[in-house]
Automatic annotation (TrEMBL), chains A, B:
Its EC number is 2.4.2.1, 2.4.2.2. The lineage of its organism: Bacteria, Pseudomonadati, Pseudomonadota, Betaproteobacteria, Neisseriales. HAMAP family: Nucleos_phosphorylase_PpnP. Keywords: Glycosyltransferase, Transferase. It is an enzyme of class 2 (transferase). This is Pyrimidine/purine nucleoside phosphorylase. Belongs to the nucleoside phosphorylase PpnP family. It comes from the Bacteria. It comes from Silvimonas amylolytica. Gene3D superfamilies: Jelly Rolls. Transmembrane segments: none annotated. Pfam families: Ppnp. The keyword Glycosyltransferase applies. Catalyzes the phosphorolysis of diverse nucleosides, yielding D-ribose 1-phosphate and the respective free bases. Can use uridine, adenosine, guanosine, cytidine, thymidine, inosine and xanthosine as substrates. Also catalyzes the reverse reactions.
């Protein structure tokens, strides 16, 4: 996996969620696809999804419980998890997460 | 001023400073120049510089006092301030800052 996106646009203004527990910047690929690169600080948060998402973890450690799931699962850097659209997930970040979020 | 960088690379792993009060991502221009896009949450911090920096504020509000300066100055989105190399500055962020940092 490449450690960087090449030939992309980056929006200078970031996105701040949950009082700054999550900060991301929007990346736009050459074909117009939007992704975000972000950081989640140690916390317990609930994220809601519009479009389906793939959360690709670059570094860090978290415990995730998808809406309707009976069990939670631990993920670390190098792993990914999928979240359905119009849903939500509980995420407990144990070690600061660096992620790429893929939409749609 | 453009709201985004175009035709750049972006490092997927972010940079986290001061327990997450400052989160940035590195952007690499086509000519190899490195910049960073970042967010500083409301806080009082002291930043040290290696290379000289130009802090370009995209949004937010802060009060800055450069090392050796007798007075502090207030800056808001749309303004910039210069910091010498091998120096430091006190920055009180009053409203979450979105910035681009230019080095060298």
């Amino acid at each position: 996996m490449s450690q960087q996106f090449d030939n992309v646009s980056v929006v200078k203004q970031g996105n701040v969620y949950f009082d700054g527990k999550c900060v991301s910047h929007t990346v736009i690929l050459a074909d117009g696809t939007r992704k975000s690169v972000g950081v989640i600080l140690p916390s317990k948060l609930v994220f809601n999804t519009g479009a389906p998402e793939i959360m690709e973890l670059i570094a860090g450690k978290c415990v995730v419980k998808l809406a309707g799931a009976s069990e939670s699962q631990t993920y670390t850097g190098g792993q990914s998890f999928n979240v359905p659209g119009n849903s939500s997930f509980d995420i407990e970040t144990l070690e600061t997460l660096h992620y790429v979020c893929h939409f749609g």
